[in-house]
Design a protein that fits this description.
540 residues; alpha/beta; Rossmann fold; Luciferase, domain 3; GMP Synthetase, Chain A, domain 3; 3 domains; 13-stranded mixed sheet; five-stranded parallel sheet; globular
Length: 540
């Protein structure tokens, strides 16, 4: 397998230089310029001593610059590191230090955050600021556009398909983890996925890749509606369409604006939209319904499919979307640790929630290692052997727990539990841990609990997720006071904002006389969830 992201994208640029690679906020970038700008950035990175296996953090909203930075890192045989732009100082330091980042490309609006933490990142050799019109160039940093203007494009090099690719995920322990893949196989996996979706034979090697691209008679125009900093947005919304010689459409605006997204579909002839479950699909459906009632429905004729991964996508919402347009709805069951199954819905098929066809190499095992028999009703952990990561970066213990060998086959166990139906499909039940999933973001109770307990009036705390119609779950804290102390709910919530990214901050706090724990001191999350649901289960 000789594929490599940088080499594949160079081949697209050579074959179709005038085709549009990316559009951000209406500004289009040709493949010719996409490749040249990435090569100039790559040259600058090499001047600071970066090369094969160097890690580069990308701290940026959705934008063409994000993709250019990633391409430039791939060109030097380095590894781009996705940085969650919602993180606060301590979270950023942990992530960048754990990743051994030697460079950081960051958006200008985060200049003060970089100023706050850069002295705590001795491994970082260079900071590169992307001007977004919000902040002046931070002293001691390089200007992104200036780098591209002054540098000559780095000459192309031969690359090793064994170069690693890594994506950071929250995992299940509260601290971000880098999931490591062999880059060449990872690249080919997406090439093959795009080929098979079009009924084409995947190219056998990079030498055959240009011939394959020529057979893609309708290159995708993909709208990555969710953040590129997460796997769903980057992998499905950007990497797959770029490897098919297509175009990625982006908006740099934060927050979900359904009318803006539907407007982009109309304006740019979007063929593929990538979202995250009902958290996106419900507001998108409301916008379609309202536009229809106004007598000015959106023109969706170009839209061939909507793909979702990461959060439940309900049957009711799927049906509503299909009322407005005949298309495919691809509900993908997967995680950073591996793809496991999918459900494809159209007007001609049965609509379902959380029911998936298994990918080849996927099985469900009981906790004691037995394969779950179809129709047995047993609950088991979903595992995939189709394409298993190498492990977690610098975490052999967690790697051994997640990536296990059964009967001579190596599997990934991301933590999802399911039953296997008689027809071989699975019904997903959710994570076996206490991880909270809110709008596709993973929130880990221990981290939030520690932030709440920093308040001087709080004695103890447990954090749980309770159902939320739009976001899947919302974060609720159950806390007790120190003797003689007290504080109100709003003040405590505001206090936690100083220590946590916004999506981790509790939406509500329940105050109790004593936080219940097991005799050994372990958390009683079942009790805490019951208390939270009783207090706020019907809250908006």
């Amino acid at each position: 397998m000789d594929f490599h992201f940088a080499t594949a994208w160079e081949a697209v640029a050579d074959a179709y230089p005038e085709r549009i690679a990316a559009i951000t906020d209406g500004r289009a970038t040709r493949w010719l310029d996409f490749e040249r700008r990435a090569a100039c950035l790559a040259q600058v990175l090499t001047e600071y001593g970066l090369g094969p296996d160097s890690k580069v953090g990308i701290y940026h909203h959705n934008a063409t610059a994000y993709l250019e930075a990633q391409f430039g890192v791939f060109k030097i045989r380095g590894c781009p590191i996705n940085v969650n732009y919602r993180y606060k100082a301590d979270e950023l330091v942990y992530l960048l230090d754990n990743a051994d980042a030697q460079a950081v490309v960051f958006q200008g609006c985060y200049a003060m955050r970089i100023w706050e933490i850069r002295d705590r990142l001795p491994k970082v050799r260079v900071f590169i600021q992307v001007d977004d019109g919000t902040e002046a160039l931070l002293d001691g940093t390089l200007d992104f556009e200036g780098c591209i203007r002054r540098a000559e494009p780095m000459p192309r090099v031969e690359r090793d398909p064994a170069d690693v690719y890594m994506l950071y995920t929250g995992g299940t322990t509260g601290l971000p983890k880098g999931v490591i893949y062999p880059g060449g196989e990872f690249c080919y996996y997406f090439v093959a996925a795009g080929a098979m979706a079009r009924g084409l034979t995947p190219p056998a090697s990079l030498a055959d890749y240009p011939d394959y691209l020529a057979k893609v008679d309708s290159p995708p125009v993909s709208l990555a509606a969710c953040p590129l900093m997460h796997g769903t947005g980057m992998w499905l919304g950007a990497m797959v369409p770029l490897l098919a010689g297509g175009t990625v459409v982006l908006t740099s605006r934060l927050g979900l604006d359904p009318d803006l997204l539907w407007g982009l579909v109309e304006e740019h002839g979007v063929t593929d939209m990538v979202i995250v479950g009902d958290a996106f699909a419900r507001p998108l459906l409301v916008a379609l319904d309202e536009a229809y009632r106004r007598g000015h429905p959106y023109d969706l004729k170009s839209l061939r499919q909507i793909t979702s991964s990461g959060v439940m996508w309900s049957a009711e919402t799927k049906q509503g979307l299909l009322r407005h347009h005949d298309m495919l709805l691809n509900d993908v069951m997967g995680s950073t640790e591996g793809g496991m199954g999918s459900s494809v819905t159209s007007r001609d098929s049965r609509v379902s929630t959380a029911k998936f066809q298994l990918n080849p190499g996927v099985a469900v095992f009981t906790d004691d290692g037995r394969r779950v028999a179809p129709g047995s009703g047993e609950i088991g952990r979903v595992a995939t052997s189709g394409f298993v990561p190498l492990g977690y970066y610098k975490d052999p213990k967690k790697s051994a727990e997640t990536f296990q060998e059964i009967d001579g086959v190596r599997y990934s166990f991301p933590g999802d539990y399911a039953t296997v139906e008689a027809d071989g499909t699975i019904t997903l039940l959710g994570r076996g841990s206490v991880c909270i999933n809110t709008a596709g973001e993973k929130v880990f109770p221990e981290e939030v609990e520690e932030a709440v307990k920093r308040h001087p009036a709080v004695a103890d705390c447990l954090v749980v997720g309770i159902p939320d119609e739009r976001f899947g779950e919302r974060v609720v804290a159950v806390a007790s006071y120190q003797s003689g102390e007290s504080c109100d709910e709003a003040a405590l919530i505001e206090f936690t904002r100083e220590h946590l990214a916004g999506y981790k901050v509790p939406r509500h706090v329940v105050f109790v006389d004593r936080v219940q724990r097991a005799p050994n001191g372990k958390a009683d999350y079942k009790w805490a969830k019951k208390v939270a649901n009783a207090a706020f289960g019907a809250a908006a």
